Amino acid sequence: MKPVMKQLVLDIHPDAPPTLDNFVAGNNTELIAALSLLAARDQALPARHLFLWGAPGSGRSHLLRATVALAEAAGRPAHCLAGATQGAQLPETPGALVAVDDVDRLSPDAQIGLFNAFNRSLANGQSLLLSGASAPLGLTLREDLRTRIGQSLIYEVQPLDDDSRSAILRTLAGRRGLPLADEVVDFLLRHGRRDLPSLLAVLDALDTASLERKRPVTVPLLREMMQQGLSI
Amino acid sequence: MNQDFWSFCLSRLEQELPQQQFNTWIKTLHASEGQCDDGPALTLTAPNRFVLQWVRERYLRRISELGEEFHAVPLQLDLQLPAPGAARTVKPATAAPMNGGGSNGIHAPAGTAAAGTEAPQRESRSAATGMPPPAAPAVVIRPSEPEPASAADLAYDKTRLNADFTFDTLVTGRANDLARAAAMQVAQNPGTSYNPLFVYGGVGLGKTHLIHAIGNAVYRQNPRAVIRYVHVEDYYADVVRAYQQKSFDAFKRYYRSLDLLLIDDIQFFNNKNRTQEEFFHAFNALTEARKQIVITCDTYPKDIQGLEDRLISRFDWGLTVQIEPPELEMRVAILKKKAEALRVEVDDDVAFLIAKNLRSNVRELEGALNKVVAYARFHGRGISLEVAKDALKDLLNAHNRQLSIEHIQKTVADYYKIKVADMHSKKRTRVIARPRQVAMWLAKELTPMSLPAIGEAFGGRDHTTVLHACRTITDLRLADHQLNHDVHVLTQVLRG
Q1: Which Gene3D superfamilies does the annotation name (chain A) (predicted)?
Q2: pLDDT above 50 for B94
Q3: Beta-bridge partners for B125
Q4: Alpha-carbon gap: B83 to the closest alpha carbon of chain A (Å)
Q5: Going from the N-terminus, what domains does chain B have, and what CATH number goes with each?
Q6: Looking at beta carbons, which residues of chain A come within 8 Å of B366?
Q7: How many domains does chain A have?
Q8: For position B457, what pLDDT does the model report?
Q9: Cβ atoms within 10 A of the Cβ of A171, count?
Q10: What is the pLDDT of residues A63-91, one digit of tens each?
Q11: Any CB–CB contact under 8 A between B211 and chain A?
């Protein structure tokens, strides 16, 4: 049998920058609305700070970056910080929106930094947008920080239902110019892991395989890849 | 005409507000009438920045609503301070809710939010006034003029006080009665009653509110008093800065020039030796000059880790008061007060639902209330028991999940460093029996389980044993300081 010719593929992922619009909302419409109010410093929001939590892959980082971008677009200073690498000193820009991703990974010094940011926010007009892996009750942080987080407006990023997942897959596939047949989406959602990171990994693999082999994405292609070791 | 309006406004506000609030905030305003291009105008002059800020945040919206009700057209409303020379115009809050994101490119979800947030506010306003919802914004905002802040303004800013935290807004109950009484004494006679006043209690129980209240009360009595609220972390930053800029003289001069020093969270001094030394000298200088110091901490002085003995002994010179976690009725009252600040109406049953389920600290109550308010606004519904239950579904579940009896037993066993198995064992030595009694007491306080069920969970004991344990712990808490502290800490940990 003639070996299958494979096209070499440039490793480019044309994913759009995260916005609140391109977040598939599912059951999170209230959260999305609250974030847009937070970015705009709208007084309809009953709290100055917002904490959102959810399982890995639920889209926390997407939401943080999207909200920061929205605030910046409206001319408000904004910072997006990663909990794991954040030091003791948080930005003190007056009026800024300060987003800290993964607060559960803050070092002890950084926890005091965030504690100070809470205390100083009244004077410097900052609002904090925080994310974590669990509800405030389950966060292992200093107690004085944990309760301050608990005082914020708290949202759980609700897991997506299958309709939303299939919508995301189609959107992302469409953005890559990759036509995705309905039965492929159904197959993935019936047989594979349904968390978003897993689905996106499969989409990447399908995209590459489709380009390499110059074949459309179909269930037979998917099965073939699974036989060659792709786990879905 | 406008003077008539102000009398009308006063009579309405007098009916709507508690007498004390009306006298403190509204009666002190000076109103002057006028007419501008756009219609009737009213200028309110507040005696100081403190009142101004308060009125702007709490009452301006209501006054503008009344203005529209009275004149049937939007009222031009200015709020200012009596400054010699140029008066400072402060931008009033808009009465109409913001656009909700339509202008910044958010589509479906945010648009829904705008509709959702706007509707109930309008409803509540029309319900309050009995008038149809206003078609135009009730307050016309003048472009703010870049004028220098008045001296009083700057002086208040320098205190770093939060004008929201006053004795008026502090809910009182058994948990903070003593602390509040002492704080009011100190506010009335700074430097001469209790010096220092040392306030301690768990996180989120209102220590910071209390010391701001002292500062605000002293400022109201004497706006010339030099007051400074400082968190220990900021004090530490000041020391570091003084080091870097070699400006220790200025630093010392400043802190020793104060009439009232309010220093928050002293436990953060932990092992910061140079900062402690500076504070020690400032403390001595201030107390010698009979200037007041108020300190807060999360624990009582002798338990503070990493603090020099000479400081600890000085903290005992004055009065040490504790703030305890609030009981149910007080939590309900706190929620009602917070709701008032958010300008929403919360019925007793809703407040009770939140207060019953969230017991540990005030911050958590506030978080839950925020959640309910946001939910109601988003869905365009009033705040009812049903809405509150929906909004708090996750939160309530998370709490109920945590407080199983196994969780209590494990937490107590870990705390006293005994085995969880000892909770069920027949051993009766003090080191095991006492923690077991504490765990039984906590199980009774923190879960809805029956006493027989609790006894069963502790190795099949009789319910009278549980009853005896609960009585013993209740009695011992009054006599045994250490045990009381243990129970306090455990309660905090369990309630999360």
Answers
A1: 1.10.8.60, P-loop containing nucleotide triphosphate hydrolases
A2: no
A3: none
A4: 23
A5: 5-80 (3.30.300.180), 156-322 (3.40.50.300), 328-400 (1.10.8.60), 405-494 (1.10.1750.10)
A6: 47, 151
A7: 2
A8: 92
A9: 13
A10: 999 999 999 998 999 999 999 999 888 99
A11: no
